[in-house]
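Worked example 4.2. Below are the chains of a multi-component assembly; read each line carefully before continuing.
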Amino acid sequence: MSVQTLIKTEAINRFYYPEEIKEDFLKTPGLHFTDGSYVDSAQIWDFMTVEGPRRFPYAYNKERNNQSRMSRDVRFFSGIKYGYLNLTLRDRLIKAHENGIPIVHVEGGQTVDPYFAAGAIPIVPGPLRAMARDAKEGLDIKDANRRAMKIMEDGRQAISIECCNNPIGSIEAIHQSAVPVDMVAPYLCLRCTDYSYILEAYRTKLKNTMLHFVDFPVTRDGEWTVTYMAELIRDLVKKLGGLRGASVREEDLWKEIKRENRGRRLARETMEAIWNAEEIPVTGSDIFSIITSGRFDRGDSLACLEYLEQAHEEVIQRVKNGVRAAGIPEKPVRILTVGSCFGFWFDFAEEKGAVLVGTDDHLSKIYADVGEEGDPYEEIAKTILAYDYELPTEQRAQYIIDLVKKTRADGVICGYNWGCNYQSAVSRMIADIVKKESGVPTINLQVAELGFLDGNEQTQNRVEAFIEMLS
Amino acid sequence: MSESGAFAGVDVGSLGSKSVIFENGKIIGSSILRTGLKSEESGLDALNAALGDAGRRREDLKFIVGTGYGRISAPYADKTVTEITCHARGAHFLHPKTRTIIDMGGQDCKAIRLDEEGNVTDFAMNDKCAAGTGRFLEVMANVMKVQIEELGELSLNATEVLPVSSTCTVFAESETISLIARGERPENIIVGIHHAIANRIHGLFSRVGIESDVFFSGGVAKNVGMRKALEDVMEITLAQPEGDPQLAGAIGAAILAQEAWANKKIKAVV
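Applying the procedure described above to all two chains together yields the following structure tokens:
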């Protein structure tokens, strides 16, 4: 394909917010941020229609494999605001970093209350890799994808073991200073075997970045595990506070716990309204945004909470009016995905007659409130130790069976990334138990192309055949 | 259901492009060509060859379904469907008692279970590795310096099955070179290669189970040595193909084209 043809093709594939929705959008509230700032809907509109397309053209490409593209349901205004939180993440974190707010790299699957309470910003691998990609602006889909891949491939220089693309990409991004990370401080929960990579990479690549592991008592066999974990959280919070020369008070923790509990509650109430609706009111892309916002992964717990409040209101209204979201097929096959860091092509699935109704990993976070009385450290510890996703495999399978009922899923796709030693070991077992005990068909997929634009055909072929089987 | 008019199925695989023309519930033309560098052209060539074989023109076709990995570049198709669904429908057409399909194509192998109507009830595929596929046999034919078509017949003359690794094509290739260097009989190595693939496929069925009749579809199904290895390793009897098993995907696509046309008409009436 010639350069001219490529440019023409990409222009045709470009996504725009139509001008006719502007007036209604401007009537909606903006978002407050924890640093005291506020953006109104006019500022969000301007960013998403002028600055965003100029700086991040890839996000506006309609290529169906583009996992970073905007929701095509443009009348779901909260979705535009989520897009804003997404595309401004890098700017906001750089500004916070310059103002002395520590940026802390964490892993998925952990409550982030103590990080925000300590005045830090936790950032998980997926958004961190996206931030590194966004350090170079003006890239369209192919170049943005190539840049992300280049960072990840550079990261393989530090590896002598296999692990999934997420930590390789994120650790390398930190090493290249493509993202301003002050500390790497994940929990050592069972869900992921990436820690061995982090440790190995640390020796060769991250010598100048603070590393702090929070141990995870996998046995969870008694009161001591809560006490032990609480002490570790206390130590973590102290260290995080130390990064900005401040001590963290219990009231700071309570304030954050209450905010995040409210966000988690809103996220699950919104999801339950979606699951029980006659028609699916929002796209898979927006469903995913609602679930992941309930784990506050866009760098600001207050803005995420306000997004969830607005999304909740819009969803309830749509359910009441029997609205089916743009792009959602009639009587779609409802797919529940199972597994960490397993990307799903929402638009692709919807084109083929299905819709994503949830992911066990992220849903476990919005169903994990922290107690609001007693010792905040112990309450956080109890929550971490009770995560459904971290349960022994047979119990986790039972949790998924409950989710199948709750979400009214027609099929379950269990997925894991190549190199993920832990999930590859449990995924098949879960697929078998769920199929046997719920009677719902399951499929077990290994994926090797996390976040890649190309080379997805084999995985998509399996997903498409699974949807055809359930149709 | 027999819808009047002509319908086409086009199955563009990684090695072969196949097409079938269906009319009044019967196959009236077909083609099998080598897939070239451009899958759209390969599909069109196969379609035109099948039309020529059937004595029909493009404008005679009411509906075309594309399948196989090349379906993502099939603007000539009115609809695309995965080859898993198509093989199930095609195998059911060729052998209605089929409840289990072993499909070996150029770049993957599939274990498919189906109901009495030819609908898929479960499936499993190899995990993106050439081991256990037609490509594996191509690599091995190259190492053994024989034509791929000769492998099956040669394997029937083996006196013993030499174990060859089924985990990886590259490892198996180096093992095969070692076996040749050691002076082992080529036929014994070749039968070992076939058994390595059969072992791999057997593993897939641990996920979905086996129920008779078992139909072997795909290009490799024409390899008599592979058929025998599968029967020996899996302790099954494969159904005798009533028609060309390599065309199963294209046949299923043509049947689905006919059904899609009928549904379209029903919707238009409603």
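Take a moment to check your reading of the output against the notes. Strands of chain A lie at 31-32, 38-39, 103-105, 121-123, 183-184, 210-211, 333-338, 354-359, 411-417, 442-447. The mean pLDDT of chain A is 89.
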